[in-house]
Amino acid sequence: MLTTAPHLHIRRPSPTTTEFTVSTLPPQTLPLRLLLAVVNLLRLLLGITVLLVLYAKWSLYSPYTAPASPPEALSLASLANALQHVLDSAPGRLAQRAAAGTPAWALGPAALAALYAAVRRVHAAESLLVLRGLGIQTSSSGATVLGAAATRFIPTEKIQDVLINEAFRGFEVRHYLIVVVDGEEDVVVVFPKLLPRRDVVERVWRGVRGCLFDVKPRPKDDDGQARGNGRRTNGKI
Amino acid sequence: MPRRTYNIAMVCDFFFPQPGGVESHIYQVASKLIDRGHKVVVVTHAYDDRKGIRYLTNGIKVYHVPFAIIYRSASFPTVFSFFPMFRNIMLREQIEIVHGHGSLSSLCNEGLLHARTMGLRTVFTDHSLFGFAEAGSILTNKLLKFILSDVDHIICVSHTSKENTVLRAALDPLMVSVIPNALVSENFRPLNYPTEPSAPGAGFGHNPPTAHHLGPNDPVTIVVISRLFYNKGIDLLTASIPRIIMNHPNTRFIIAGSGPKAIDLEQMIEQNVLQDKVEMLGAVRHEQVRDVMVRGHIYLHPSLTEAFGTVIVEAASCGLYVVCTAVGGIPEVLPSHMTVFAKPEEDDLVLATGKAIAALRANRVRTEKFHDQVKVMYSWSNIAKRTERVYQGISGDISETEFYGYETADSAAWGATSRSGVRSFALIDRLKRYYGCGIWAGKLFCLCVVIDYLIFLFCEWWWPRDQIDTAADWPRKHFEDSDED
């Protein structure tokens, strides 16, 4: 319910720039926003709880005890003191009891899994930015909210071709868009995680060729080149 | 009414880059079917560096399915593990007819089973002959029976092969068509043959090729091109060569090919001191075969079993007089004036070769005409046309009377093994057909079919049809039907 099949969103900030974004984010409606807010709040709570339990477990074995006198502000000791206060509160005592009751071998993996669930990205988004005369930049959102998007810029003179290919993947055959880069053994797969379906890939492919090579025939253009590109665009892969 | 075209999948373990007869057969038929406006994809397994999806000349799309490699370590589970991939390929290519080749290809057998489960029409081409008596043959025959119980139509390469297949798999002979192999006759021209047919306006037709007479002292060269295995009759050859050379001293032999029997041949040459009479070339590639053949006058084919024998057609096309054993489908292949037949035994082979040499020396054989005659007899476009007719028959596009050539008045009496148009996809009818395969085998086959069907249901649920993209078609060729050839 929170995600949809990968769909395409095209943005044209300027006549020579196009951004193709494929994401699993469904259209923003009020119920969806509310639901997302609730889910994110729950995830935040889950994360805090797990951290608290982990701290409680650590404090069980910790040789340090909270100092009696109030320490000066903004020091490591003051942080420990504040955490001690949290542990002494009602949820803190609950966390302590949970920490004491759970063996470490079970707590570790469970905490890791819960933390992963808390920071995992709900929606994946991958995009392709095409700048005529400069090149193209692929970007792919990280698996968690902590990681940054992985981007890769390919300058125009390095691009040998942009094309759609088919390959076996698992029990399926998928269409995918690739960029053939000059001087590299491997091709660059665009939208590598989402692998959108053929209609999306074809629209992006036409858009990229249109924007990058300007295949629309123009009177001023070099005639042969325009015709050549036009023919290649019209043909199916 | 416009002629209907089909989407056809050729399924076989054997395909290029591996060389061989089945491989080139699939390629040629696929290529000619595409010329006739059909869409053809080939499904085969991955070869070393050949994985994924490739296109060949003429727009033949080849799926080199990577995970048939699992087969070598575990055989039984792959019967079903290929199914999801197979289903995906069939759906994305919108296949209507699955055409399997070669009874020893497990990929083909699995593909036909899955295709029937998916409700597709199936055709099977058998390229080989098998015995009935040995343990291996009995097992193979049982497997063949399992696969063929539910196939819509079967194509054999010769009438002998048809008889053999009908007996092995207990089939209704009307379900089996005979469509021979063919050859690309341009690749098998005799020496000195005009490469371009003379232009229409240049003269009155083109002159018949001049006869080249064999002088009284010219040596007769006998060519043998064969893999050197037992079943190719190399033992016969080894025994015959010294006797032939003793009877006709002005005779040379050229033997091309490799295999375990090469040692026997070499021993024979050394024992009889025939080094200057018998030349052994070792393995030759298929494109060099013609160059070897045109060096000779007679082609000797001592095979013990052969479904069709494309090589003797190639030899005749190169203008060689053919001496061969009358086994399997060989007697059907060439007209009698091109061949001398022998029984598969030493004395008769020596005798037949002697007759052939005598006939050549007397210049009674017009070998220079063979090429044009063979060219008319065998062409791949004709094969494709006949294959297309099979497709039309099983799809119900031509009437049963026309396809089978008889009235199906009592079609109800055929029951579960009834004709194509009514060969039902219903699971219960399929189970009936499989159950008749044997006391134990029938139950085992039914179990396999039921499991296959359950897997099919699971696939339909896990990978719904509307989630599978259809692949773009290669631009179809426009084809005008002509009643030529």
TrEMBL record, chain A:
<protein>
    <recommendedName>
        <fullName>Phosphatidylinositol N-acetylglucosaminyltransferase subunit H conserved domain-containing protein</fullName>
    </recommendedName>
</protein>
<keyword id="KW-0812">Transmembrane</keyword>
<comment type="similarity">
    <text>Belongs to the PIGH family.</text>
</comment>
<feature type="domain" description="Phosphatidylinositol N-acetylglucosaminyltransferase subunit H conserved">
    <location>
        <begin position="127"/>
        <end position="192"/>
    </location>
</feature>
<dbReference type="InterPro" id="IPR044215">
    <property type="entry name" value="PIG-H"/>
</dbReference>
<dbReference type="Pfam" id="PF10181">
    <property type="entry name" value="PIG-H"/>
</dbReference>
<dbReference type="InterPro" id="IPR019328">
    <property type="entry name" value="PIGH-H_dom"/>
</dbReference>
<dbReference type="GO" id="GO:0000506">
    <property type="term" value="C:glycosylphosphatidylinositol-N-acetylglucosaminyltransferase (GPI-GnT) complex"/>
</dbReference>
<dbReference type="GO" id="GO:0006506">
    <property type="term" value="P:GPI anchor biosynthetic process"/>
</dbReference>
<keyword id="KW-0472">Membrane</keyword>
<keyword id="KW-1133">Transmembrane helix</keyword>
<comment type="pathway">
    <text>Glycolipid biosynthesis; glycosylphosphatidylinositol-anchor biosynthesis.</text>
</comment>
<feature type="region of interest" description="Disordered">
    <location>
        <begin position="1"/>
        <end position="22"/>
    </location>
</feature>
<feature type="transmembrane region" description="Helical">
    <location>
        <begin position="34"/>
        <end position="55"/>
    </location>
</feature>
TrEMBL record, chain B:
<keyword id="KW-0337">GPI-anchor biosynthesis</keyword>
<dbReference type="GO" id="GO:0000506">
    <property type="term" value="C:glycosylphosphatidylinositol-N-acetylglucosaminyltransferase (GPI-GnT) complex"/>
</dbReference>
<dbReference type="GO" id="GO:0006506">
    <property type="term" value="P:GPI anchor biosynthetic process"/>
</dbReference>
<feature type="domain" description="PIGA GPI anchor biosynthesis">
    <location>
        <begin position="45"/>
        <end position="134"/>
    </location>
</feature>
<dbReference type="GO" id="GO:0017176">
    <property type="term" value="F:phosphatidylinositol N-acetylglucosaminyltransferase activity"/>
</dbReference>
<dbReference type="InterPro" id="IPR001296">
    <property type="entry name" value="Glyco_trans_1"/>
</dbReference>
<comment type="pathway">
    <text>Glycolipid biosynthesis; glycosylphosphatidylinositol-anchor biosynthesis.</text>
</comment>
<protein>
    <recommendedName>
        <fullName>Phosphatidylinositol N-acetylglucosaminyltransferase GPI3 subunit</fullName>
        <ecNumber>2.4.1.198</ecNumber>
    </recommendedName>
</protein>
<comment type="function">
    <text>Catalytic subunit in the complex catalyzing the transfer of N-acetylglucosamine from UDP-N-acetylglucosamine to phosphatidylinositol, the first step of GPI biosynthesis.</text>
</comment>
<dbReference type="Pfam" id="PF08288">
    <property type="entry name" value="PIGA"/>
</dbReference>
<dbReference type="InterPro" id="IPR013234">
    <property type="entry name" value="PIGA_GPI_anchor_biosynthesis"/>
</dbReference>
<keyword id="KW-0328">Glycosyltransferase</keyword>
<keyword id="KW-0808">Transferase</keyword>
<dbReference type="Pfam" id="PF00534">
    <property type="entry name" value="Glycos_transf_1"/>
</dbReference>
<dbReference type="InterPro" id="IPR039507">
    <property type="entry name" value="PIG-A/GPI3"/>
</dbReference>
<feature type="domain" description="Glycosyl transferase family 1">
    <location>
        <begin position="216"/>
        <end position="350"/>
    </location>
</feature>
